[in-house]
Design a protein that fits this description.
CATH superfamily of the largest domain: FAD/NAD(P)-binding domain
Bound molecules: NADP nicotinamide-adenine-dinucleotide phosphate
Number of domains: 2
Largest sheet: 5 strands, parallel
Length: about 500
Amino acid sequence: MTDTTTERDLRVVVLGAGMAGILAGINLMKQGYRNIAIYEKADRVGGTWRENTYPGLTCDVPSHHYTYSFERNPDWTRHLPPGAEIQQYFERTAAKYAVNEIIQFKQEATAAKFKDGRWYLDFDSGHSDIADVLIAATGVLHKPSYPKIEGADSFTGDIFHSARWDHSVALEGKRIGIIGNGSTGVQIVSALAGKVAKLKHFQRTAQWIMPVENGYFSEQERAAFQDPAALEEAMQTELYKASVEQYTQAITDQESEGAKQLAEACLNNLEQSVKDPELRERLRPDHTPLCKRLIFSPDYYQAIQHPNSELLTDGIERIEPQGIRTRDGQLHELDVIVFATGFHADCFMRPMTITGRNGADLEDFWQDHPKAYLAISMPDFPNLFMLNGPCGPIGNFSLIDIAEHQWHYIEQLLARLRSGDCREIAPSHEVMNSYESKRVAAAKETVWFKGGCVSWYLDKNGIPASWPWNFSHFVELMSEPDWQAFGLEAPAQNRAQVAAELT
Ligand code: NAP
């Protein structure tokens, strides 16, 4: 039993009230931490699901697997969760677990400095705080990437990024141009096809598209899901876990059965869904499936074949006052242009400045690319832990599940600080370097590196900045910290348990 009388009253500060920040807040409260705060730059929780509101916004993870493990949602209306329902789910969950009470909204952290064993924080409002532990739950894809296309300022219609959707612009009867065909662009085209006067989709690189069902749950099904046991059964968790494992195996081993099955499904989808052979060839990617993040879509091929839709593959020459001119010299007159051109994937906590032990600057540490030991912690930045940090697992699976595994790991580190076992936790440079060189070597074996494409998974040196091993390996590593990596002995109760098992 833990002796709570000698526990340190740690001040724990969480940055960000998106999916991961809410998770951290709930778990900290469950574990009896009282001196906690979550700072959020916006005026509501939700992170990416608050910021993205484009038509067709959907998560490609099966609905019932896109929830916290302790707060299932029987009320999803569809097999894949619509963005608005996800946002409601997070708002509801934050309220239910009283996380809202510890969130300070409209506070964007601008600087964090480690001094005398504590983190000194500054916010854009002028507010400041001092924390023993800093949890960065600032998200991955939050800084929109605007393409450098000549003439964008000259366009006389409406023009905006998919993550900054302008809902004051009516779309009905308009000619809309969508630039980009990642998950976002594909979902927008699917949602708007047939509902606007003309839809022009500007594709630079063809994408593999995985067919997926996205029907509505019937009233009876939703009523049945109110029973947690029935919901648990319907979730087929083992099947879901096996599919995630198969997916990560396919990334690390292109000869695996899973890789072949996924490739075949994508190829069949293209061959069977697109009737016009000329259009089919323009939609045919020249890279290995999974090299870019796979697009899951039930209806994109149907949407692009709608009489009012058009796929443009000649490349964009420039934007003009009336529309987009492609390299073949044609001007495509438009009323609205949407940049579905993705995000700067290397920001994480930045642009805030982070100064660690002995003046260590995060910008220097991340000069080459953002990195962290097991995606969670960094040398010289003690007691700073990240959820969904750099080079963690990313793919067509639930990031909530990833964050829960990471939290399980982080809470064990926090317990050591809380018990007074140690004052600072960070891996050594040797541990970090050895880990990172193994990660980079493994990353060069993945389909992201070998598959013949460019994607946001790659860092500026062209190395995949992602978890390059199987999902099961991630789960195993998250089960308990390798205490030696942090210069610590295993906690006393773990040592006693090991000794008991050996006798
Ligand atoms: P993205 O995957 O990075 O795609 C950006 C698109 O914009 C690509 O098609 C890219 O073409 C194109 N592009 C960029 N600059 C361009 C330029 N100058 N000219 C022409 N085309 C240009 O971005 P995203 O679609 O927003 O998706 C980002 C990530 O968000 C996803 O991978 C996923 O992790 C997440 N997401 C998830 C879901 C979901 O269902 N769970 C939904 C939406 C987003 P190239 O391919 O040629 O570079």
